[in-house]
Write a structure and sequence with these properties.
The structure holds two protein chains of two kinds.
Chain A (H helix, E strand, L loop, with lengths): L24 E2 L1 E3 L2 E3 L6 E6 L4 E7 L3 H19 L4 H17 L1 H12 L3 H22 L3 H4 L10 E5 L5 H14 L3 E5 L6 H13 L6 E3 L4 H9 L5 E5 L2 H11 L5 E5 L5 E4 L5 H13 L11 E5 H15 L20 H16 L3 E4 L14 E4 L6 H4 L6 E7 L2 H9 L3 E2 L1 E5 L3 H8 L6 E4 L14 E2 L2 E2 L4 H6 L4
Parallel strand pairs in A: 1-5, 6-7, 6-9, 7-8, 9-10, 11-12, 11-17, 12-15, 14-15, 17-18
Antiparallel strand pairs in A: 2-3, 4-5, 10-20, 13-14, 16-19
Helix pairs in contact in A: 1-8, 2-4, 2-7, 3-4, 4-6, 10-11
Chain B lengths: L18 H11 L7 H12 L1 E4 L7 H12 L13 E4 L4 H8 L5 E6 L9 H13 L4 E5 L2 H5 L3 H15 L3 E5 L8 H14 L3 E3 L11 H18 L4 E3 L7 H14 L12 E3 L2 H14 L12
Parallel strand pairs in B: 1-2, 1-8, 2-3, 3-4, 4-5, 5-6, 6-7
Helix pairs in contact in B: 1-9, 2-10, 2-11, 3-4, 5-7, 7-8, 8-9, 9-10
Classes of the chains: A alpha/beta, B alpha/beta.
Chain lengths: ~475, ~300
Amino acid sequence: MTDSNNKWEYAPSLEGTKHIQLKDKYDLFIDGKWVKPSSNKYFDSINPANEEKLAEIAWASESDVDLAVKAARKAYVEVWSVMKPSERAKYIFRIARLMQEHARELAVIETLDGGKPIRESRDIDVPLACNHFFYYAGWADKLQDAFPHRNIQSLGVAGQIIPWNFPLLMAAWKIAPALAAGNTVVLKPAESTSLTALKLAEIIEASGLPAGVVNIITGHGDTGAAIVNHPDIDKIAFTGSTAVGKLIQKAVAGTAKKVSLELGGKSANIVLEDAPIDQAVEGIVNGIFFNQGHVCCAGSRLYVQESIADELVRKLKQRMQSLYVGNPLDKNTDIGAINSKEQLETIEKYVKIGINEGAEMFQVACEIPGKGFYFRPTIFTNVAQSSVISQEEIFGPVLTVQTFRTIDEVIQKANNSPYGLAAGVWSDKGSRIFNLTSKLRAGVIWANTYNKFDPASPFGGYKESGFGREGGLHGLEAYLK
Amino acid sequence: MTAQKNQFSEVPFSTTIDKVGVEERISRFQTRSIKGPSKIQGLFMVLSMIDLTTLEGKDTPNKVRQMCYKAQHLHDVYDGLPTVAAVCVYPSMVNVAREVLKDSPIKIASVSTAFPSGQAPFEVKKIDTQFAIDAGADEIDMVISRGKFLAGEHEFVFDEIAAIKEICGSKRLKVILETGELATLDQVRRASDIAIHAGADFIKTSTGKIQPAATMQVTFTMLMAIRDHFDRTGKMVGMKPAGGISTSKLALHNLVMVNEILGEAWLTNEWFRFGASSLANDVLMQYMKQVTGKYQSADYFTID
């Protein structure tokens, strides 16, 4: 009776791309104008789902960075810092509304450029990015209420460098609070995902925001370094790898620059024996496979209480079988393309290490497209705390599973990491949750859920996961003296 | 099915259920893309899984006759449509349905055990069930004693189901939990486990007389119980959401859920049914739209 011919395939449903407008070549957005890079150098941005070229992106040099910082300084001194806060708010609201109007286009471009499933860019990235602008627009004329008994002063020019995993969302996280607090901005998106930041520049241009308040320049690591080392920048905000974060920290030591760093993670997702197991399985899946695991706060270390471990792992494997891996533009797709070839190689390297370390690997036996960068959802059981794969950030759809017996043991193991960005706790009992959450050294802790974000909620890490908070009032304070 | 009798003490204590998480999971089933050939196949399956139902105090033999005719002739202007899986009536109407359906493959399901409230002495429930079987019912849709269940007398509920299953013999037993009265998903899960272990061939959400009825949350919870039972024992149990599923879209969302939780083996009317009175015509309208390209008004589909 179980072998039947009832196979029912869903219909492929590709999000259309006709409505999007992409230029062949993008210049730098400096002082409200589109400027050619002084070096005249451009690099290609490709679609990781099929390796096709999407556009050419300008490669900004040191002198372009200088131009952008000068424009930002001028706009800060002459316009933005002296503008009535309620007027500043209107501009930020306008940007938010224009983003909403372009939501569909932004979502499609985000998926084309970065490889994330359209379901995520449409339902999470873009709406959340808009909400960050709305949220901070509301604070712009209430700074004195937000921070009473203080003389509120903006910092000046903020240099902001963002990663490739949530390109538009990270741009919003950075730009919105900076503007609301009265600063001007020079922002550099990651080289593999510049397009939505450039679309945001077009939106900002259309919003009538005074020239120079937001400058968006593109390029590789050397462009980022030029921003970090520019003497006339008052604040560096960086989200990205811990290795680069350390370089930035060294570079700004001894200068007057303020810094906030949001770096890597190897976050623990802890399931206690009284947890709602089926929902925990869902949370584990969301925790590690959301955005192909390219999430700094991904729940990449799973700790399961011994008594339920077999059942939970069995159910997790079962659930993984119904994940759709494939074309990110397909609305059915749960897991899209790995962001770049380099990242795919990194993931493959770690998986090889895991196998050599003797861990047991399980991969979904699904088909993946022949062209483009894809990686099957993977879990490793029988992993030791000292395994490389349970210590280092893989930044891909790879989960390590360990078991534990007592609460003390799991607290120790969860905290036994150079990182401390996020954690998840699953239990039916409130008291156990609060006991754990008060002892875990992580900036964000979710209970009975994972990877939930809101503009009003601060986000940031402990230890090598960085310092400073983004989101909420904390995020605003990072842009005030 | 000659399984030895289970004991109440063998009913497992299942995991707790987090409603917020369930809702999140369900939202994912609702975004799968069902169109074109996939939609045609889905709607065809839905039609073949319907238990066409009339359970009114005002039911007359003639109404039942008409419904039985409709069950065999859903929309004769178009060839190749399936029939529904079954008709579902009160015990007093089973003989009428049998007269019309004779030896048609369409099953006759009878509600029993003092449907819908179940508030009758145990002896009466047994007589009710035996009466329906004697009149020619193929399947029995019993209700559990919700009062006893809510009072914590789970063993009583277990014994009642087991006793009714004994009367049913080889006739398939669907056990209605009336989830709208069970208040929490944890209770729904417990009732599902009890029903499955007491011998239910199908578990069914609702009588259709209480709101809310077959929400996706409760159907999800019951499907998980079936899944866990299958993983533990290798035995399949059927699922029947009933009440409140009146549109094709909702029915297809339910099918997606079955497909992803239980798998394709359950995508047949042997293991999955919809209890509904008005669903069939909506599915027919959508089906005809898919195959002919024309969307006709409700007047072109007979009501019964």
